[in-house]
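Here's my example:
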Amino acid sequence: MTTTAPPETDEPFETAADTARRQLDRAAAYIDVDPGTVERLKHPKSVHRVSVPIERENGETEVYRGYRAQHDSARGPFKGGLRYHPGVTAEECIGLSMWMTWKCAVMNIPFGGGKGGIVVDPKDLSESEIEQLTRRFAEELRNVIGPMRDIPAPDMGTGSREMAWFMDAYSMQEGETIPGVVTGKPPVVGGSYGREEAPGRSAAIITREVLGYYDRDITETTVAIQGFGSVGANAARLLDSYGANVVAVSDVDGGIYDPAGLDTEAVISHEEQPGMVSGDAASDTLSNAELLELDVDVVIPAAIGNVLTADNADDVRADIVIEGANGPTTTHGDEILNRRGIPVVPDILANAGGVTVSYFEWLQDINRRAWSIEVVNEELDDEMVSAWNDVREAFETHDGATWREAAYIVGLRRVGAAHSARGLWP
């Protein structure tokens, strides 16, 4: 995922947990769900805080703070990423774990939500130091994770390399190889083909379905994508193959724009070589902020959170917003876009391909049987269309609900039903 600093805004600060709780209340207003269950879902089941010491290459010992928030497990083991970033906080992990609960429920995957990370800038560490950090983190979390308990995955600042180290450290501690303890691993050690591309593919699939819902011809659709990393690049290239006209993309340093359309296969993504998107000389350049305000049919914020805010939502000229990143639209930005009649299709549906293929990977690990990339992509398309149909039905059934509220209605109904069936331990 391409990362950059969020834009400055005068909008009141709201944590990810605050936003998640507000969205939960809005969904609960539409359906008959036990108020006690709603209150339970406003709080994580547990938050684990650990110290992660490593010996730096200069011989000094440094101790980093690590977190693992486990939100809800009524439908199955906790599931969610591990991020290495200086901005990691307990509140952020709680909010993101809540979103993971809804995302898994929207996709009807038998997992609950989890999220964790370490307060660190991985650019400040050598490869060997990152490996040491990852292995020690696995040791510190060993008693609260496992393939039937809590299954981490890659996130901001981590990838398949870290997941392989994490899995190996956990397996060494347990005395047997347990590939199902994490997802997002390299295929050679139990990872799934198509996992890295999955969030971008799901964003493209949902864009295709949304355009069909609004009777728009995808071959006559213009698309701008902020963030040409693992999510944005894969979304752009799949949309291009569908016939859409991707006219603008960006990375951390800025973007490129060509109203005649970009050759998305020729543009080098941020993941492939940082800085090459904004350095592409074949097109006009623009800033990340300007990209969000282009006059296009669809804009996909696929980089970081909090980029569509009260400060710029009135300037968005796209007809449809598809959230490729996690939490790219603030509460007040969402309200403005809704008031203006611009549909915002939420992240918990649009980028849910990542957790869906993670589920496929977990199944492959449990059954010790690998799937081909063709099978993975076919299954992903089927699951995304099924989830889209569930959200569309909720959108049409509940008068006045936004697409975000419709997705939460689907998720909350399923999580609420699981809590009702299981009851409350006395």
